[in-house]
Amino acid sequence: MKTILIPTDFSETSRNASLYAIKMASEIKIPKVVFYHYYETHLIYSPTGELDEISSIEPGRIKSIEGLTAFVDSLGKIPKDVEVEMYHGASSVNEGVQEVVNITQADLVILGIKSGSILKDALFDWNTLSVIKLIKIPVLVVPSTATFKKYEKITFLSDFKNVENTPVHEINTLFEHGEVDFSILHLQKKSESEAYIAEGKLKLSKIFSEYSPTFYFSESHNYTDDIIDFVAHNQIDIFCIIPREHSLLATVFNNHTSKLAHHIQVPLLIVHQ
Questions:
Q1: Max CA-CA distance within the chain?
Q2: Angle at the Cα of 127 from the Cα atoms of 139 and 235, rounded to 5 degrees
Q3: Which residues make Cβ contacts (< 8 Å) with residue 266, sequence separation at least 6?
Q4: What pLDDT, in 10s, does the model give residues 162-194?
């Protein structure tokens, strides 16, 4: 991992995510941190009806540059081994983040979440699900109460579907900087056969054989409560989820958003197959 991207709206939530990212970069030797600020434009037309692009864009651009510079300065002294870059954009948030990912070749996007608030309202008022679906690199969602520490306990949530397409490389990057206690949690459905579960467990055991994962199973279908209880009981440092259309990610981030935002205290790493 070489580059972390942090979109920011200058809020305390994004400030905490930024501090988390800087410490993460310094501690596990990620050389570059990129900040991105999206700014809105107000269209101004000349008396003849032509769009005045300079007058429309320039005030927002200047304000964004000044604001982002001040925001980064407010984070305090940044370690010498972490290079900082800053980008600004007036396109949509989703397009802007994707563009900066392409330009910087970022390996990870870090977004903040305000604990005790509904995710879709707390995360810069952005449509988090659309960002996660659009950005095909891992996204780390950091609660406002979280501070970085080296990962010792990591859990990967798997539904045992398409196991052969598990994003092993993205998950393995978490293991590059020390030994970790790695576990895999499977939330069982009543319709799943013992053979299906055994096959999924066997395949994942082989895929992650280097890390000797411990498997945990829950027959409950209250996904959010299961995740929160598991993370708290086992003192997990980071929880990994694969987004799937019409499945678990949508369930967790829509129907059970409020409960997750209020109670989960660890970062969620969202990785794509």
A1: 73
A2: 40
A3: 143, 146, 231, 236, 237, 238, 239
A4: 888 888 888 887 777 678 899 999 988 888 888
The residue extents of the domains of the chain are: 3-143, 153-270
* Owner of token pair 């490389």: 169
Residue 76 pairs in a beta bridge with none
- Catalogue the long-range contacts made by 194-203 (C-beta closer than 8 Å, 24 or more residues apart): 196/160, 197/160, 199/160, 200/158, 200/160, 200/163, 201/160, 203/160, 203/163, 203/164
Amino acid at 6: I
In the numeric block, which tokens belong to residue 134? 């659009």
Cα–Cα distance measured from residue 15 to residue 71, given in angstroms and rounded to the nearest whole number = 8
Q: Label the pairing between strands 108-113 and 181-187.
A: unpaired
201-to-174, 195, 223 alpha-carbon distances in Å: 21, 10, 19
The answer to whether domain 3-143 and domain 153-270 are alike in fold is: yes
pLDDT in tens, 106-129: 999 998 876 655 444 444 434 455
Whole-structure pTM value: 0.83
Q: Does domain 3-143 have CATH number 3.30.1490.190?
A: no
Q: How far apart are CA 113 and CA 129, in angstroms?
A: 13
Token readout for 150 is 């080296």
Per-state percent for the chain, helix, strand, coil, to nearest 5: 40, 20, 35
Please give the CATH number for the structural domain made up of 153-270: 3.40.50.620
Contact status, residue 215 vs residue 201, Cβ threshold 8 Å: yes
